[in-house]
Amino acid sequence: MDFLRPTTWAEALAVKADQPEAVPIQGGTDVMVEINFDVRRPVALLDLNRVAELREWGPADGYCRVGAGVPYTTVVEELGGPLPGLAQASRTVGSPQIRNRGSVGGNLGAASPAGDSHPPLLAAGALVEVESRDRGVRLIPADEFYVGVKRSALEPDELIRAVRVKPATGPQYFSKVGTRNAMVIAVCSFAIALHPDERRVGTGIGSAAPTPRRALDAEKLLAAELDWDAPLDPGLLARFGELCAAAAAPIDDVRGTAGYRVHAIGVLARRTLGWAWNDHLGRRAA
Ligand SMILES: Cc1cc2nc3c(=O)[nH]c(=O)nc-3n(C[C@H](O)[C@H](O)[C@H](O)COP(=O)(O)OP(=O)(O)OC[C@H]3O[C@@H](n4cnc5c(N)ncnc54)[C@H](O)[C@@H]3O)c2cc1C
């Protein structure tokens, strides 16, 4: 197995263009598990750890641009202000060791329906920045990035450069059901982001469909009927939960049944909207 170690982003793109079969490795918390369990035996690994740009984050065109190699620990410690949903989700990933190595870029690269960063990226309306040497940069909306179980819109010669997320203008929450409180893959998860400036609520469902997805009908319901100046109507909250549950399309597996997941998505949706709405009204009163 070749081990390729570019030191710049341009070099990394050149390697990927010339050897599209090379498997990128950032934190290795997915890749090394797969290699150790013989799930895959790549002909070449493309180690991105020497590409310093991938570990940087900062403002860009009104977005917060988070390099693909930024580890979860940094998201938790430094990005809770602008990206509260992603920071909350990052806090639930694995253990401190996994959060020190694992990255949002690696979560996107793996594109698992259970990945914890996907629901908050969907709810916030994030863009995934990908690049190839020959065709340049593409900005892919998060809800177009996931195309199948563990499959993304990334082309073989492309690498993920960063994720761009608008700094939060309202409350955001992430909630995850697991079989225990830590070191657990989600049975299902849900993220919500209030965008008061647009009078819009974003959603993200995790681990309850072949891909992470938004609950589009539930979002439309709130866009049409939510009174942003009033307490949350219990009837509207209930219908929101029902439409979020209806947007799920889960399977039975070792972590939970499809029926349980559908039910739990409805509960998480109502719960997170309730929390976010309390914060929203509290901020207005302050
Ligand atoms: C014990 C344990 C607990 C875990 N717990 C959780 C959890 O609670 N929640 C959760 O979501 N995940 C969990 N994971 C999975 C894993 O930690 C995450 O998916 C993490 O985000 C992967 O990031 P990484 O940098 O380690 O990726 P890597 O393993 O380096 O790569 C993952 C995938 O992304 C690709 N990739 C990496 N960087 C790029 C790039 N720049 N461009 C294109 N492709 C790229 C790789 O080729 C690979 O396919 C856990 C893993 C372990 C081992």
From TrEMBL:
One of its GO terms (molecular function) is FAD binding. Signal peptide: none annotated. PROSITE patterns: FAD_PCMH (PS51387). Pfam families: CO_deh_flav_C, FAD_binding_5. The keyword Oxidoreductase applies. It comes from the Bacteria. Residues 1-170 form the FAD-binding PCMH-type domain. The keyword Oxidoreductase applies. SUPFAM superfamilies: CO dehydrogenase flavoprotein C-terminal domain-like (SSF55447), FAD-binding/transporter-associated domain-like (SSF56176). Keywords: FAD, Flavoprotein, Oxidoreductase. This is FAD binding domain-containing protein. It comes from Nonomuraea cypriaca. The lineage of its organism: Bacteria, Bacillati, Actinomycetota, Actinomycetes, Streptosporangiales.
